[in-house]
Amino acid sequence: LRCLTAGESHGPSLTAILDGVPAGLPLAAEYIDQQLARRQGGHGRGGRMNIERDRVAITSGVRGGLTTGSPLTLVVANKDWPNWCRVMDPGAGADLKSRAVTRPRPGHADLTGAIKYGHRDMRNVLERSSARETAARVAAGTVARRLLEELDILVAGQVVQIGSIKARALDLTLDTEKLAAAVANSPVYCADPEAGAAMVQEIDAARAAGDSLGGVFEVYVFGLPPGLGSYTQRDRTLDGRLAGALMSIQAIKGVEVGAGFAAAAARGSEIHDEIFYRSDRGFYRSTNNAGGIEGGMSNGDILLLRAAMKPIPTLYKPLRSVDIHTKQPFEASVERSDTCAVPAACVVGEAVTAWELAAVVLEKFGGDTMGEIKERVALYRDYAKSF
Ligand code: EPS
Fold first, then answer.
1. CATH of domain 2-385
2. Best of 8, 36, 48 to mutate for ligand 1, by most ligand atoms within 8 A of CB?
3. pTM for the complete prediction?
4. CA-CA distance, 145 to 176, in Å (whole number)?
């Protein structure tokens, strides 16, 4: 399973090409659009989201509501593009002057990207480094989410911290529908309503101060069979792959699996999940500090991932920087930005997790059609249960 995305933040569109999606997967554009709408939402988003209404156009690989086995092309148009078509024009007549960027923002890709690719106008960097790109990744990841659903593997997520406000620990006995409903009802995608209300206040206070906020989100996956990923080679470890996927999201600075960093302070006897057996259930554990991964493989428990997002670096409040042409110091300030995009990042986190899991599922079970894959997964689940 492979995916590439292309497109600029203020270009005509974002595109994802997905190769290796099996045939026979029921897929509707409206299903993808639901996730695109979630990604646009969350309290703390800025003016750009009042312009965009992300919708996917599926231009290849799906016919009559079913994937064909051919590559899928997913296109999300940028509604803001008409305002930028002269600036972003690929032809010789492009307006390269009026929106040139020579003042790098601290915390952004601007300066290092310009040095790396030899740009004197950092617009060439920021147009692609922008988190707008995640619209394409959410579209792609939602195809993977659909595939996993067919195998009774469900992906969910929630925001658990914004700035200094933390949510109560999630009750994992909560069923996935209840969790999804609690998250959907929250303006910051947090299942704890009291913490959610405090997070909204925290965001409003940061916005009033011209500042930005980061936070932490969690991704949960229910119904994974044991044995996805492998201990046999570094690049096949499931935790390594999922951490890489989450770290690749713009502004993510840390990833944890299960107890994560807290495990470092515990004794081994306190943190490892003891193993039990019941004939009707097979092997199981009564705790999940491992977060569903042991030895680089899924162990059959709920997958628990956590990612930390830094505050968005585009600030109304100026930070010191240096103009790359004049070499003179200046204080950066901007016209338009999000105050907090942690809820959006949570949706992206769910999408990239789904993508990576669909890839490992296909590596383990193979198959060109959904029928074959379903049969093989069912057989393997029975085998693992009676092991
Ligand atoms: C972003 C800057 C803002 C955000 C954008 C990411 O866009 P603009 O520069 O057009 O105001 O709104 O996020 C999105 C457009 C999106 O779809 O998430 C940045 O610099 O990364």
1. 3.60.150.10
2. 48
3. 0.97
4. 14
